[in-house]
Amino acid sequence: QVQLQESGPGLVEPSQTLSLDCTVSGVSVLTFDYFWSWIRQTPGKGLEWLGHVSYRGSTHYNPSFKRRLLISEDSSENKFSLKLTSVTAADTAGYFCAAQYYYDSNPFDTWGQGSLVIVSS
Amino acid sequence: DIQLTQSPSFLSASVGDRVTITCRASQGLSSYLAWYQQKPGKAPKVLISAVVTLQSGVPSRFSGSGSGTEFTLTISSLQPEDLATYYCLQLQSYPHTFGQGTRLDIK
Q: Rounded to an integer, what distance in angstroms lies between the CA atom of residue B26 and that of residue A94?
């Protein structure tokens, strides 16, 4: 059974880079069977899909974040990561990692527990 | 982007009531619509995929229907544990987008 666990700083200063990891257990992050996504949640905008990484590092990003966003895999630690640059207070959110099985049109059926990130000096 | 608009945004109902939540899309969707339930402090949980497919372990009082631009989530007999916020999600095109949510309160 696939399980996901987010980790990373809970506080990031404005203009800096927000970095989060999602450790995967139960399957290799390199498998072609899964799409690995980041989703965030704010009181103002609700749930927003940020992007995903899949087999051999193939990525797809939400255009709203594309200029600032990098999602990558790390097979040595069986995790995937999010980096969001030039953050502002508007990037304060709960960040979830999530997985889709086999097709990117399948629902996100596995989620991490979420990680709250506050952008503040 | 495909916009999803849920109605109502807030709903209060009694145990045993039949509850319906609507999700309207800004353009026609095929079958790539899912419904999620989120309880406070938890990650969303998928209830229904492909408009009508009940996920394993989800009580049969939940059902989904619809086509084109209008979709519904129905709870046939509301239970106390259904207190949550419900979201629709479209997976037809990028970027994947969620509705703004319907908060369900138990009277």
A: 27
Residue B60: what pLDDT? 98
pLDDT band at B12 (very low <50, low <70, confident <90, very high): very high
- Would you call A106 and B91 a contact, using CB atoms and an 8 Å cutoff? yes
Partners of residue B35 on adjacent β-strands = B48, B88
Contact A105 B43 (CB under 8 A): no
- State the nearest Cα–Cα gap between A96 and chain B, in angstroms: 8
Q: Alpha-carbon distance B105 to B107, whole Å?
A: 6
Using one digit for the tens of pLDDT, what is the confidence trace for B30-74?
899 999 999 999 999 999 999 999 999 999 999 999 999 999 999
Q: Classify strands A59-61 and B102-106 as parallel, antiparallel or unpaired.
A: unpaired
Backbone angles phi, psi at A64, to 5 degrees: -65, -20
Extract the tokens encoding A93: 């959110």
Cβ contact (<8 Å) for B43 and A114?
A: yes
